[in-house]
Amino acid sequence: MTAFVPNFTRIAAQTQTLRLVPLIENAVQACAFPDPFTVTFRAYSANRKPDGWFHPSSHPTMDERKLYYYLADPDRWVDSTFEYGPRMSVLMGSASHDLIQHVMTKMGLLLAPKGICVCCARPHGHGIGQCNEWGVRDDTLKRRGHIDGFIDLPDFDGIEVWDLKTCAPPVIRNIEHNDLEAFKKKWPKYYGQAQEYMALTGKLQAVILFLAMSEGWVMREFTIPRDDAYIARTEAKYRTVLRYVDLGTPPPVACCSGGARARDCAAASCPVKIGLAA
Q: What letter does residue 170 receive in the DSSP assignment?
């Protein structure tokens, strides 16, 4: 495969603050991807059934009591229905993920996983029954998940976690590149997810890229440093939840006192939720 060389004249003005966006924009404009390439759509379910593990995508920001019921009573964990709109968004997001991954791989920025995935035990690859993402796993704290990739950029001494998020254009319209405080406020789950990925891999930095689906296909780039205090709090919370699961009793402090939050909660066996239905 012929290596893609970016047009540095076009992107020089942005390189002081942005590390990926100018490169990807330039590469896509130049059609720096295999011709043709195949996109694989899978029957992804956003409503992951409890499997006895904590997951970086949703659990770092979840309360102890809710996590307890997730682990202790999985048969009565009832998530909301995955409707048409979110389903279509995930499918189209998969196509965008494949495109950006091909572009970054051709530029030599994205590292490809090899061997067997430690998370799902499938062989790495893009074929049927294979896993094209990096798996991470911690048997001690019972947490595991998949990472979009690892990147190797020349301006950072080490490998970084990389994650791509697709979204509707208004989602990123009023937020600037690399505004870390705004990122943490707007997307606490994504911040927690990035910290979990760094905790599970030992990495010191993550780069999260948002791609707006349509209206110019603009991107937002955020470099997220490792937050050891946040990681320590999350790990302490997981230890507490596992201890209560072993004891067979929920943490004493409820997540909420009722209302809409309890009605929308997936933990159907929580006494607060049961009380609403009484």
A: G
Q: Dihedral (C-alpha) 29, 30, 35, 37: value to the nearest 10 degrees?
A: -40
| C-beta separation of 170 from 179 below 8 A | no
CA angle 156, 160, 166 (to 5 degrees): 120
- Strands, E assignment, 32-148: 110-111, 134-138, 143-147
Q: Specify which residues 221 forms β-bridges with.
A: 209
- What is the 8-class DSSP label of residue 60? T
Tell me which residue of 107, 85, 89, 79 sits closest to 6, measured CA to CA. 107
Q: What are the beta bridge partners of residue 212?
A: 167
Predicted local distance difference test score (pLDDT) of residue 122: 95
pLDDT digits (tens, 9 = 90+) for 242-262: 999 999 999 998 888 888 888
Measured distance CA(175)–CA(128) in Å, rounded: 38
Flag whether pLDDT at 14 surpasses 50: no
In the chain, helix, strand, coil percent, each to 5? 40, 15, 45
Which pTM does this prediction carry?
0.89
Q: Write the CB contacts of 212 (distance below 8 Å, at least 6 apart in sequence).
A: 166, 167, 168, 169, 171, 172, 218, 219
Strand order in the sheet with 160-167: 110-111, 149-151, 160-167, 205-212, 219-225
Assign 136 to helix, strand or coil.
strand
Q: Are 71 and 241 in contact (CB under 8 A)?
A: yes
Three-state secondary-structure class, residue 96: helix
